Amino acid sequence: VDVAAPAASLTGKHILVTAGPTHEPIDPVRVIANRSSGKQGFAIAAAAAALGARVTLVAGPVALATPPGVARIDVETADQMLAAVTGALPADAAILVAAVADWKVEASPTKLKKSAGPPDLRFAPNPDILATLGHHPDRPRLLVGFAAETDDLLANAAAKRTAKNADWIVANDVSGDVMGGASNHLHLLTADGTEDLGAGSKEALARTLLARIAQDLS
Ligand code: CTP
Ligand code: CA
């Protein structure tokens, strides 16, 4: 064992990260949204910058400070997130942590009035950003998605890996109080199988994942 071998660095690499929820407007004052604090995605962007990468962080609406050394693009909707992500290509790796709303609403240009009764919302599907990158001509060399599940975690995560043409899926059991919390328990699914990355703070798990990514890209 070469004990002097340094940890792999990400110097010269461009890492693209999505984080947070998206907000899909119903009218000028109301939205539908996913539950996401953005903490895990921001921790991943910070860990990538700490390893020397150039980092682009496309963030939905969150109440978090931009990590040092990270270029942040704020977006609201899934359509805006997709445009920002494809506009940031090429990237050596993309890590899509955002909890993208699966549907958007046919929004009213004027404020709906409560007195008119509950609205009959019409939904349309949002673009799948991970699947779009998976089949993009400028596909990042390493494409990493997340799968947040309450049931059948590893089976659902494996199905998403192949369906979206991702290299890795990080599987995240959200049946407890993970959403908005400080800690997490992650599994890494690759073409070679599944590995338990363990439980820990979102920052510690981000460092573990980014060390793996740096190793893979080197
Ligand atoms: N994702 C995305 N664009 C979407 C939906 C999801 O890029 N419109 C990405 C997420 O950022 C994540 C991965 O796809 O990296 C899995 O998201 P998830 O919501 O778990 O999967 P879905 O395919 O949307 O399936 P479902 O919500 O029904 O479980
Ligand atoms: Ca979804």
UniProtKB/TrEMBL annotation:
Annotated DNA/pantothenate metabolism flavoprotein C-terminal domain residues: 10-215
Q: Does the keyword NAD apply?
A: no
The terms describing its cellular component in GO are: phosphopantothenoylcysteine decarboxylase complex
UniProt KW keywords: Decarboxylase, Flavoprotein, FMN, Ligase, Lyase, Magnesium, Metal-binding, Multifunctional enzyme
| Co-factor remark | Binds 1 FMN per subunit.
Q: What is this protein's function? A: Catalyzes two sequential steps in the biosynthesis of coenzyme A. In the first step cysteine is conjugated to 4'-phosphopantothenate to form 4-phosphopantothenoylcysteine. In the second step the latter compound is decarboxylated to form 4'-phosphopantotheine.
Q: What is this protein called?
A: Coenzyme A biosynthesis bifunctional protein CoaBC
Q: Which organism is it from?
A: Sphingomonas kaistensis
Its ancestry begins with: Bacteria, Pseudomonadati, Pseudomonadota, Alphaproteobacteria, Sphingomonadales
Q: What is the name of the gene encoding this protein?
A: coaBC
